[in-house]
Amino acid sequence: MKLKLSLGLLLLFVIGTAVYCSKTRPVFSAAPSNVRDSLSSSQLSYFAVLSSGNTAGNSVVQIGLSGPSKTSDNLFTGDTLSIGIGGTMHIYTIKDIGDTGSFQLNTGTSAVDVGVSAVAIATRSAVHTVSFSPNSTYNGGKWEVLIRVTSTTSESYNDGIPDMNGFDLGTGSSAVAAGDITCPWSGSAAVGTTVSITGTTALTGYYQSFTCTTPTGNAPINTGVTAVMIIGGTHKLINPTPNHTAANEGNADVYTFFLRHYDGSSTLVSADTAVGRLAVNEAVRVTAVIDPTLTFTIDSSAIGTTGCGVPMSANQTSVTATAVPFGSIAIGSTANNLAQRLGIITNGAGYVVTAFEGHVMNNLDGSGTTIPDTNCDASGCNTITAANWTSSDTSNSEFGYSLQALNVGPTLSFTTSGSNFTARAFGVGTANAQTIFYYNATPTVTHYTAVCYRVAATTFQRAGDYENQVVYTATAIF
Predict the structure, then answer these.
(1) What is the pLDDT of residue 199?
(2) What is the pTM (predicted TM-score) of this model?
(3) What are phi and psi of 118, to 5 degrees?
(4) Residue 152 gets which letter from DSSP?
(5) Rounded to whole angstroms, what are the CA distances from 428 to 335, 355, 373, 434?
(6) What is the full DSSP assignment across 377-407?
(7) Would you state the pLDDT for residue 218?
(8) Average pLDDT of span 184-198
């Protein structure tokens, strides 16, 4: 009889224990470990009150000292700014940062945007990736992330305007919603209300609640298994504005966040609460200046025995950067040809090279005798129009030039086709300078062009030394 009674009591104990253990309860209760909130961007939002000296139509905006942002630091070229008062704000784009007290817009300001109490706002938003390792679990429970929002009466935590004392939820259809939250364990997300927390000065304030459920019947979550809760999708929390003085720029503003655990009956398990910190700061503006460059060279390299489709005269080896010495030239039906190489490179948006001659080639004996500028065997070439100059005109002495690209790049005003020696005459004086080649982009290598000079003289051309000067001008486009 005693044996039956003992067996019955043992059976009742085993059944009771099984029922008790089947109830919704944690494996054990302990705060989660490895808690962190990683921001996709920790850059502070910008909120400046404009100074009273701004005028309508001016693209340069002066910054006042009464707003959270007191300098142009944390602004960058290309940033979009909302400027104005209340509901009359307009969108502008920053063209340049002048100094710490001003910035320049892409257009002049509207009169309604620079009145008393006008502000300039640039919001910066971020995705919050909260990761943690749970040390307890509840069937049908939930994890809650609390992120600091403003508790200042002059600010609103959900108006889409960045706040000095916390993150902003956004406003209306642009506010962070459940669909913007990704939960671990395929849980369900929810955006709750604000929560007031009291404690030390660092902890006291209002916090926005974001929750993810743990499904009913889930297996126990053990230490070391990382869970990730992502807050931010199509809509993201707006980062705070500075709440430090201008003198303390570079020192991060630090905010507290909480990770809390609830059991299956939505009761807060205070032992499972963890506290973390978030730091947001001004972004660093890194600047550099590349000075405009232009290199233009004249030499006789890479010409060889042929240039612009024709043989060079014997004196080609004597050509230098500053001299084209034809020497004693052949007269009659023979043309005399020499060439120089022009090279150019720049970091500008392109370049133009022009040329002109000082005067018509003249005899140095003072007789006034000249070798006229070419008309290309009466083919109609001049300083603007090129034509083929294929043979010497035995009835006229002539001086002109042709062009040949030595590498891919420059666009020539004209060029020799085959062995035709297509030519033009130099214009006399600066007013008659003509473009000989150009390029409408930043070159990646030095561009080289051959300038081939030709002199032809009749058998009755007056003897003597003849001279001319050719001036090249290279202009970069910036």
Answers:
(1) 79
(2) 0.71
(3) -65, 145
(4) -
(5) 22, 9, 10, 10
(6) TTT---SS--EE--S--TT--EEEEEEEESS
(7) 53
(8) 92
Please, are residues 171 and 178 in contact by the beta-carbon 8 Å criterion?
no
The SS3 assignment for 99 reads: strand
- Exposed/middle/buried for 197, CB within 10 Å: 0-12, 13-18, 19+? middle
The whole-number pLDDT of residue 286 equals 86
Are 17 and 45 spatial neighbours (Cβ–Cβ below 8 Å)? Answer: no
CATH number of 26-43+125-280: 2.60.40
By CB neighbour count within 10 A (0-12 exposed, 13-18 middle, 19+ buried), where does 151 fall?
middle
Q: Which residue has the tokens 């002495």?
A: 397
Inter-residue contact 342 to 472 (CB < 8 Å): yes
Run of H or E including 14: helix 2-22
- Across the strands, what pairs with 375? none
**Contact yes or no for 301/183 (Cβ under 8 A):** no
Strand order in the sheet with 466-467: 370-371, 361-363, 466-467
Give the closest residue to 144 by CA, choosing from 194, 98, 105.
194
Average pLDDT, the chain: 89
Alpha helices (H) along 192-279: none
Tokens 């990382």 sit on residue: 226
Maximum distance among all alpha carbons in the chain?
154
